[in-house]
Amino acid sequence: MLLRSFVPLSLLALLLSGPVAAVDHEKGKEINGTCAACHSENGQGGKRGEYPRIAGQGVKYIESQLRNFRSRTRINIPMFPYTQERELSDEDIKDIAAYLNAIELPTKMPVFKGDEDALTKLQIADRVMIIPRAEGDLENGGQIYQKQCAACHGKTGKGRGMFPMLVGQYTNYLKRQVDLYLKGDRPHDEEGVVGVLNGLKEKDVQDVLAYLTSIQEPKE
Q1: Do 122 and 153 belong together in one domain?
Q2: Is residue 17 part of a domain?
Q3: CA 205 to CA 171: how far, in whole Å?
Q4: What is the pTM of this model?
Q5: Which three-class secondary structure string do you get for 137-202?
Q6: By the 8 A CB rule, do 68 and 74 touch?
Q7: What is the mean pLDDT of residues 99-119?
Q8: How many domains does the chain divide into?
Q9: CATH (domain of 30)
Q10: Quick one: 61 and 144 in the same domain?
Q11: Over 80: is that where the pLDDT of 208 sits?
Q12: Dist. CA 52–CA 39, nearest whole Å
């Protein structure tokens, strides 16, 4: 009598998928030395929102955008030399995405013990990511966000899969990206040149941006 052994489908899929390449966080840290020129060492971005926060951003989103920069699907002049001349490989992209995603930035100023020197205090304070409250109707912004944006970006704005984290991002940067979407200079992910943003009034957009600044979660 021939005995048949049954392998769970989940295990079978894992066996057939082959080995998964591990990311190299040290290599990611090395690559980030180049990114730091604009996005800062800890990935906070520019204080005025000229460069986005990339610390804590979703892995899949970072990977997709770097590939878009590399293929010039998304045109960005400052990113050109770093993705073209350096010729980021797929492995490099995975390493830097994983490294940036793992960076946690506090959203509350620390309580110093009193024995820190000035440089140490400055370095610690520099990691704190507090986005100033933007003006707007928080109730209206919250209703619009939860109804039209949360399905992709998450109820708390922390992103999901290919869609980026919005909470904790600079308001000026987000507003500039919205303007680019509306002008068709930056196609909205998976929606071509027309998407949810095209159906919102300018005040609604501002209210959503204000709402995002109101749901930052302080970390003790």
Answers
A1: no
A2: no
A3: 11
A4: 0.82
A5: CHHHHHHHHHHHHHHHHCCCCCCECCECCCCCCCHHHHHHHHHHHHHCCCCECCCECCCHHHHCCH
A6: yes
A7: 89
A8: 2
A9: 1.10.760.10
A10: no
A11: yes
A12: 7
Q: Can you tell me which residue has the tokens 């350096």?
A: 86
Contact criterion met (CB below 8 Å) for 125 and 109: yes
SS3 at position 160: strand
Residue 152, pLDDT score: 93
209 touches 181 (CB < 8 A): no
CB 62 within 8 A of CB 50: no
Q: Which domain holds residue 104?
A: 25-110+118-126
Tokens of 217: 């979660």
Closest alpha carbon to 60 in 89, 100, 87, 22: 100
Query: What are the tens digits of pLDDT across the range 133-178?
Result: 999 999 999 999 999 999 999 999 999 999 999 999 999 999 999 9
Chain mean pLDDT for the chain: 85
* 176: DSSP letter: H
Is there a contact between 214 and 138 (Cβ–Cβ < 8 Å)?
A: yes
